[in-house]
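Section 5: illustrative case.
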């Protein structure tokens, strides 16, 4: 089977299932594992690279209104690749090529590929998607084994936090300028990791949040999980956070518990590494229970100026 993945998370699922030899096309954002970067890229972004986050937010809104998508498909390349299966989603037009555009493109391809929609809203949905992909590839038993292994790691964290009397107030910040709260699975991750994020929306998209609500919540821990940003770029967003009214009065800021993470690789990528995201959070919330996970460049502590990693 010839597979084209239009999602970084789906690419990681295919690799986790040992079917990477079948991948003939991926997105410009598919960067893990390293072998994925060598596969032909069938998408590109219409949003300029390197612009400030406020400008990104405005450009995203404008692009969705005017064209309905942020990305373009390389249709001639897709036709040459002749995929049998296209993995995509209709969960979020900000995260991937719009589902309708993918469907239209697939109808025009001479290989007439099946289009498989992966649309996770919860942690359980993410794990179920692994089985869904495995079933489509004819290796459902292996996919269930991979799912079971990830579930065991989730359960191992949950067992240590389920009876904790102390659940710190955690704010996972999906975007800084303007402020966005966590959505979909983020609230679950925080709760399993032993915290509480009352600002997050459960199983629904991330949304803009008034800064005054953040101040009223008075988070003891702030975790920047900026969608699409790597660790270095996410840490830079701390400078914006530091300038927000009353930011230095927040308990998280006073105690030095403000963290930047590689949101692109972990928290906003609903694939197998969502479990690593949980393990990162567990360490950040309860370092007395959970040692640092063995991850390179996954997170950093921001000092009290919230401008530099420590």
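Designed sequence:
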């Amino acid at each position: 089977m010839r597979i084209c993945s239009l999602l970084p998370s789906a690419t990681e699922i295919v690799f986790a299932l040992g079917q990477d030899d079948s991948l003939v096309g991926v997105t410009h954002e598919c960067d893990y594992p390293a072998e994925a970067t060598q596969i032909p890229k069938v998408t590109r972004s219409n949003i300029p690279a390197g612009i400030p986050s406020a400008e990104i937010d405005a450009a995203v809104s404008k692009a969705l209104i005017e064209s309905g998508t942020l990305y373009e498909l390389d249709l001639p390349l897709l036709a040459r690749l002749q995929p049998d299966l296209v993995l995509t989603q209709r969960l979020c037009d900000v995260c991937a090529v719009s589902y309708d555009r993918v469907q239209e493109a697939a109808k025009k391809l001479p290989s007439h590929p099946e289009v498989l929609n992966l649309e996770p809203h919860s942690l359980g949905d993410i794990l179920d998607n692994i089985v869904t992909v495995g079933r489509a590839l004819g290796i459902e038993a292996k996919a269930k084994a991979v799912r079971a292994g990830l579930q065991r790691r989730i359960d191992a964290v949950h067992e240590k936090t389920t009876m904790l009397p102390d659940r710190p107030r955690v704010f996972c910040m999906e975007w800084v300028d303007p402020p966005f709260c966590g959505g979909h699975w983020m609230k679950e991750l925080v709760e399993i990791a032993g915290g509480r994020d009352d600002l997050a929306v459960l199983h629904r998209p991330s949304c803009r949040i008034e800064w005054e609500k953040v101040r009223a919540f008075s988070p003891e821990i702030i975790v920047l999980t900026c969608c699409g940003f790597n660790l270095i770029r996410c840490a830079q967003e701390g400078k914006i956070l530091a300038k927000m009214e009353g930011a230095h009065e927040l308990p998280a800021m006073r105690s030095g518990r403000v963290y930047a993470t590689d949101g692109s690789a972990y928290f906003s990528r609903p694939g197998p590494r969502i479990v690593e995201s949980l393990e990162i959070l567990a360490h950040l919330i309860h370092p007395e229970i959970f040692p640092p996970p063995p991850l390179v460049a996954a997170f950093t502590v921001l000092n009290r100026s919230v401008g530099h990693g420590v």
